[in-house]
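hiii, so i know i said id send this last week but things got crazy w the move. better late than never?? heres the sequnce for the chain we talked about at the cafe, plus the structure i predicted for it. fair warning i was half asleep when i ran it
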Amino acid sequence: MKVLVTGGTGALGYHILSMLYRDGVELHSFSDELPQPWQTVSGVKYHTGNLLDYNDMLAIIKETEPQYVYHLASQSSVGLSYKKPFETLNTNLLGTQNLLEVIRQIVPSAKVLLLSAGEVYGRTNEQLTRLHKETDLPNPLTPYATSKACMELLGNQYRNAYGLHVVFVRPFHFTGPHHSRRFVLPSITNQLVRIKKYGAEPVIISGSLDISRDVVDVRDVARAMIQVLNSSESGEIYNICSGKSYTFRELVDLLVDIAEVGVDFMFDPSRERSNEIPLLVGSPEKIMNIGWKPMISIEDSLHDLFKEMIIRNKMERDMQKKKA
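okay and structure toks below
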């Protein structure tokens, strides 16, 4: 079996590749840069290129001829999408166009999973009580969510017009080991590690911590994606979520307890978004009907994130010493 994971150096890619590693599986990762040591999975062949370069995509699909494709590569930061809306739409829509077009030409029988997001649901009049279902119409509020909603339309175009096998997942918020520091919880975890291990000033800088999200461990999300691609009919859409929410303040308090440090908080207005969704929770009913459910508690997820962030910081510092 041949598998290609675009964006394989991110947290989801790392865990999908780790879970798929076994005898008889040929694993390939495609990203814009080679992985750092803490992003590397044994037995994976890492390729680099530009998702927006058609020839790069043609070359990787010709070389690997995958039977299964997990398309994770994207501009995935909601905050950054406000600053770079063109780049976000360009990468997430036209990059996917390049991938689907070369798959259509070279490996039209491949099974393809497109990574969307719970953010596509946006805000509703029942936002304080609503568990979003896959049948809810998208109502994106951010450039990032708009790019993902458009990507879903594009995936359905290729499915309907050319018969490609395309499935979609909409994870809500996730975190856990190997998660990028561009996101809230890993960013705060990194700050706590520097306070705990390296004597940094005991001040946590963040945006609003009073929004609520449906949070699942990244490893549970990776497991769900593998299950969906292996077993679902073309065209199916699945939320990946728990059906319950936490405020970021609750999660950060857990992280502070894990770190066992005393800290003050400093609000950074540049991290505030004017049209923030105060609560975003999904219904996991559909994906639970195919046998998936979250297995890792949020407490274990944050403990593992903190431990992995310590290792990541040490490896980075050791690499800097070698360069000096």
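btw The chain has a mean pLDDT of 94. thought thatd interest u
miss u guys!!
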